[in-house]
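Notebook, bench 3.
Goal today: get a predicted structure for AGRG4 protein from Cisticola juncidis so we can plan the truncation constructs. The sequence was checked against the plasmid map this morning, with no discrepancies at the termini. Length recorded as 153 residues. Pasting the sequence as submitted so the record is complete.
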Amino acid sequence: MLNIVFLTNSWLTSFNQPGLCITVAMLLHYFLLASFMWMFLESVHFYLALVKVFNVYVPKYILKCCITGWGIPAIVITLVLIINKDFYGNGSLSESHPYSNFCWIQDNTVFYISVVAYFFLIFLMNTAMFTTVLLQIHSVKTRTQKSSRFWKQ
């Protein structure tokens, strides 16, 4: 959906409808944040599968993933819309190129908080999960090598 909204954004902007532009910008923002959140949920699943291998039963796991993956971005978008719906709009690059219009976040502060900081937080958490998984794999490999040396002796 992110790709579809991104690819149709400039075409929909050409209709010069402010409500349509706000909707397209909001959808683009939502699907971008949802993509980041699902990337984080994949790292959590990676962690559960490779580190917490045994006794990992999470009741209604898929439901919780779906609520998190689609719900947290919806909360962020709702907060931006509640604060000011005019944060979304038409970001024209130049008047001489009418197809350079693009519906997106107009305020730099909102962009840095709701996109860059959001991505940075997820990137840090994914890096922590990845490091934990690597350390776990390394410790298993080290233990396996030590036990094989013991049995050879």
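Residues 1-90+101-151 form one domain. Helices lie at 2-13, 18-50, 61-83, 108-152.
Flagging this for group meeting.
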